[in-house]
Amino acid sequence: MKKVRKAVFPVAGLGTRFLPATKTVPKEMLTVVDRPVIQYVVDEARAAGIEHFIFVTGRNKGNIEDYFDLQFELNETLERRGKTAQLDILRSMQPAAGTTSFTRQQEPLGLGHAVWCARDLVGDEPFALLLPDMIMHSEKGCMSGMVDLYNDTGSNVIAVAECDPAETHKYGIVGAGEQVGDGFEITSMVEKPKPADAPSNLYINGRYILQPDIFDLLATQERGAGNEIQLTDAMLRLGDSQKLYGYRYSGETYDCGSPEGFVEANLAFALHRKDLRPQIEAIVKRLAG
Ligand code: G1P
What we know:
The protein is of the alpha/beta class and 289 residues long. It has eleven helices and 13 strands. The protein has helices spanning 37-47, 62-67, 72-80, 84-93, 111-116, 119-122, 142-153, 214-219, 231-238, 259-272, 277-288; strands spanning 6-10, 31-32, 35-36, 52-57, 100-104, 127-130, 134-137, 156-162, 172-180, 183-191, 202-210, 244-248, 252-255. The strands form three sheets. Strands 8-11-9-10-12 form a five-stranded mixed barrel. It has a two-stranded antiparallel ribbon with strand order 2-3. A two-stranded antiparallel ribbon has the order 7-13. The longest helix has 14 residues, at 259-272. The site of 1-O-phosphono-alpha-D-glucopyranose has 14 residues, from strand 11 and helix 9.
């Protein structure tokens, strides 16, 4: 069984729900507390043993690439000024030379198409896929738990969490079959169903481990929900020849794709920080009181 070494981050989305901020700042670069959303997602992948980080970007996303570059002058200045704490933070987050790759999705044809754009960079090996709209909080990262399940079962692993049954139309929803170790067999999958058509309230929370066979299926995938090439539809076809396992994530998932989810993530992550919690608690009490 091949190790999961590479992760794909689709970061080409326009971020229309965050206009005007996203006129010039990619939505993945909006800050949650003191670091961009994308940093949390990359950290989750790194903690799961990922060695190579592949970004599928688009126009106006150049500063994501700059962000992951080494800012030599900045580091020099921090060093000269003795700002070692800040320097240590930057160094701990710095991807090693040669461990990032960037390609562009030239047209917004959907998530399935964005993932397909990474096919040459991924090559013939299983890969992790992390959607940066979602950031997670738990002691053991979501992707780390998924890698464990992958190592036990092989094949494909899709993380899910429970959503409000009235909100199934916002997500990909799976049907759950037999329990297998820490996971379960996925028996059905549908993208953004109405509550009446949803097989469950288990929604795909934006973390996947997929076999490279998905790329050939994406190449021929017809448009689905929202007239976009949907990853969910291609995964369903992958399920005809390979096992799809669900991984129930029990930590917290914050949907930074909407302004209210983004504000919630800011509050939650600030409250999780020991150095900030007392002040933030007092601020929230005062503002809400
Ligand atoms: C995508 C996936 C969907 C998943 C969601 C999680 O949808 O297609 O299955 O539940 O991400 O964020 P999108 O949010 O890109 O519309």
